[in-house]
Specification:
three-stranded antiparallel sheet, globular, alpha+beta, 1 helix
Length: 79
């Protein structure tokens, strides 16, 4: 069963800058300022933790991004 992915592209030129799965082991994202969201993901390429700080233009956009990321982090399956 594939996991949801967080995909981001540069505005206007659409160059891919982030394409990583949201895994159950991921800690929830957090809002660190009015327009910034921070989270840590395991990199699909090397399995190492990668920290990301995403900035958006408006505070409402940050709140929406935060809630979408956290809502799509899969729950860990019970053994």
């Amino acid at each position: 069963l594939p996991y949801p992915r967080l995909v981001m592209r540069v505005e206007l030129v659409h160059r891919l800058i982030l394409n990583e799965p949201l895994l159950p082991s991921m800690a929830p994202a957090e809002r660190v300022s009015d327009t910034s969201v921070r989270f840590v993901m395991l990199s699909a390429s090397n399995g190492q933790p990668q920290s990301y700080l995403l900035r958006v233009k408006l505070p409402g956009d940050a709140e929406q991004l935060l809630s979408k990321i956290n809502a799509n982090i899969p729950k860990a399956e019970e053994p």
